[in-house]
Design a protein that fits this description.
Arc Repressor Mutant, subunit A, rod-shaped, single chain, mainly alpha
Amino acid sequence: MRAETERDARDQRRVLDQHHVVRRTFEAYQRRVEAQYRALEPIFQRWHAQAEAVRRALSDVYLNALGGLTSARTSSAARWRIARELARHPGLVPGRFANPAVRRRLAEEAQARGGRTAVRRWLVEQVYPQAVIDAASYVERPQRIRLGREWLGDERARVVPIRPNDLACGDARRWFRQVIRTQAEALLAPRDRVTALGAAAIAVPGSVRDLLRFLAARGIRLTPRERALLAYLAQRKSSAEIAAALGTSPGAVRVARHALKRKLAHPAP
């Protein structure tokens, strides 16, 4: 009886020892797993942030438009359509401009086009689509970039040329909007409006505004369509680009260009 009791006690101790060994082994394994998770947690967070950035980029109308505008497979007509859709996006075209020269130009256009509503439509349908296309052409060019008042630099905080295409999604979106605004103001109030009609049959001043005043002094009145054509010619646009902007055919643009040159060269008495 005593021998059986001792044997049972030994069996219980052996079971308890095995239980302690299993528990210590499990606790050590749990500590290793927790340590590995803590080591991998920054990687998981970085992957999550990257996935979130990709998701935001795919849903961002500005970055989507920028990708379509810079694709080699995008035709000129499709590029203009993308730019016009982006120009219609709320918040891109401001309600008021800070540049005094731009405000004067818009006031002149309001008088010529019959009100602010027509000017707003002109900005959305013609000026800003062209500004979007012009801004997208800079995306591959290394340049010194300033976002607001802050210059972007390298790891040593030196301001060096950076390709906008290499920026993070948020910075790229901010740069794109900023350059669109700059290009739109340059189209509305350029410092040097060089006209493409310098080789026409008459000698004209170098700026479009002076040209229009010069024509008005000679009694030559241009229709809104002719003014739009003249503005695109001053930007050295091809017939195909002008046709896409005005919603007509390149042949019609060539005919209109010829008629405009004849009108300028031989004004009606």
